[in-house]
Amino acid sequence: MSKLETPKQERIGNIPGFIQVDEPRDVSSDFKQKTEELIDRLGVTEYEADTFLQYVEMLNIGDIESLNNKTILDIGSGSGAFKKVLERMIFPRFFVNLDNASVDLWEGRMDVQGDVKQLPFKDESFDYILMHCSVPIMQATTANRPWDIPVSIGEAVRVLKPGGTIKIYPGFMDIASAARRVDGFFLKKYGRMNAEVLLALKQLHEQYPQLRIKLTAVHVREYSAEEGKDSLLEITK
Ligand SMILES: C[S@@+](CC[C@H](N)C(=O)[O-])C[C@H]1O[C@@H](n2cnc3c(N)ncnc32)[C@H](O)[C@@H]1O
Predict the structure, then answer these.
(1) Which of 99, 112, 116, 129 to mutate to test the pocket of ligand 1 (most atoms within 8 A of CB)?
(2) Which residues form a coiled coil (predicted)?
């Protein structure tokens, strides 16, 4: 086997039956025209508009109006751009940006500085929980702590209301194509990330048999239409 080939059992195809696998989605991350419209209409920056559109597309948010009057938590919110743009369009009941980075890094644009592994919220507090390019991928790569993934996803499920939804992108990586994309460097990390996400889901499936768990491969046209496969993971309580 060559260096970049991966054993079949590690690939995204081997998903247990309790996870619903949807048809792949083909999405774009090229939002030039929509970004300009948002800048004109809402007076936000290009970065904020682009980040907002990434969330909407990759997390498959659908109807923005459906977030009206809802309680929303953004875990690993970074610049907080999604909340800023959203609140110029609709009125969530409340929206909490949580990030563990220093306040200086994101110029204080998080509402709560905290760690996903120990969320400072009561059980069943939120209707929607968003994790965009934060958990699990940051724990598997930047933070180098993939073993934190099950407790992190478990915490999100704990603070989710019955009937609520968690949206995680990327939830899984197709490690063979990811490896081709980055020259093999992340092969091991993405493999471990997938294994830890799967472990999290198995534990949660036992603890909360009512959970609905859905995985959708996402082909991002600009960089992964042919070879890459990221996935949106959705958990409904
Ligand atoms: C790549 S940024 C994404 C930011 C934002 N979600 C976006 O898409 O623009 C990842 C963020 O996750 C945060 N993060 C990483 N590990 C975290 C943890 N254990 N708890 C809370 N936030 C974390 C980082 O500080 C960083 O701001």
Answers:
(1) 99
(2) none
